[in-house]
């Protein structure tokens, strides 16, 4: 379109982390301006068409609570687009929201995608962003974006290992000289853990709970590894208490429907039960990290011994996951400062530095 360069002057370039669970938007010169759940509520009209009712936080509140004619959809599944039209509507909504609802916007957009993505899935991401109003679309692999966001020296000839645990996928990558030496993407993440918790409670306690309750259980008392607390050290008399983090609760009350009586009821569930419920997903993540370490060239493996492994993504916040990985790999494990936004910050840095973007962009 001949107007594109002109419209580009009025549009802020954007970086989008199009996640299974959350979508984050970074605008050049402003930083992260939006972080909302990747959920869209649509209403079916008489002619069978769909009309968007709500997007993001509003739509997530509707999950599992909608009447027959309204449906809350999560258009991303396992890190890739499952519903093309709804993804396009969601992207258009977020682009307009960021640009204060101006209609003539044609921003340049960089989108982070899982490393195991197919050509067809890449095209789907590009086309949905272009249909939503993007002037140009660049793609960058999530582990690479996470490494940039974590401030790792990715352009140097030294290796860095990044484990990005999102809602739909877990990405493990070894990065050196601005390229991915080894990458493995498994479709295991926070969503599979939520589903495992939901199924465990259904099987063990005959209680049916919703997706949102399962997610709340995971974030409140979910844990990957039980490390008995060390006994407190004796303090000299008169010393003031340090402001330590409050201990995590080891149980919580949940509400759902009893499958035997059909009546809603409340049940207390413990952190041990939650850990037991998500064992399979945690084991899959640990196994993927071990396979990546086995496949790493020896010179780069030596660097990983010194630099350790960097955890990022929402799944990195699961209590005890870093301790479990440290125990299994005997390597230093660090979690990025703001693990939920590391990927979008990395994409944003690439957007601000066009030479870096050219190096890390995928075709």
Explain what this protein looks like in three dimensions.
The chain has 363 residues and is of the alpha+beta class. The chain folds into 4 domains: 4-36 and 84-146 and 342-362, ATPase, nucleotide binding domain (Nucleotidyltransferase, domain 5), CATH 3.30.420; 39-73, no CATH class; 153-188 and 286-335, ATPase, nucleotide binding domain (Nucleotidyltransferase, domain 5, 2-Layer Sandwich); 190-227 and 249-279, Actin, Chain A, domain 4 (Alpha-Beta Complex), CATH 3.90.640. Helices cover 37% and strands 26% of the residues. It has a 6-stranded mixed beta sheet with strand order 3-2-1-9-10-19, sandwiched between helices. A 5-stranded mixed beta sheet has the order 13-12-11-17-18, with helices on both faces. Residues 1-10 have low confidence and may be disordered.
CATH H-level name of the largest domain... which superfamily?
ATPase, nucleotide binding domain
| Average pLDDT over all residues | 85
DSSP, total strands? 19
Backbone structural class: alpha+beta
CATH topology of the largest domain: Nucleotidyltransferase, domain 5
- Tell me the helix content: 25-40%
CATH architecture of the largest domain: 2-Layer Sandwich
Number of helices: 13
Strand order, largest beta sheet: 3-2-1-9-10-19
The main sheet comes to: 6 strands, mixed
Name the poorly predicted regions.
1-10
How much strand? 25-35%
* Measured distance between first and last alpha carbons: 22 Å
Shape: flat
**At the first level of CATH, what is the class of the largest domain?**
Alpha Beta
